[in-house]
Amino acid sequence: MSDTPRRRHADRISGSPTFIGDGTTLNGNLDCQGDLVVGGKVVGDCSVCGVVTLSEGGRWEGKLEANNAILAGEVEGTVLIREKLEIRKTARIKGTVQARVIAVAEGAVIDGEMAVTSGAPVVEYQEKRRS
Question: pTM (2 decimals)?
Answer without folding.
Answer: 0.86
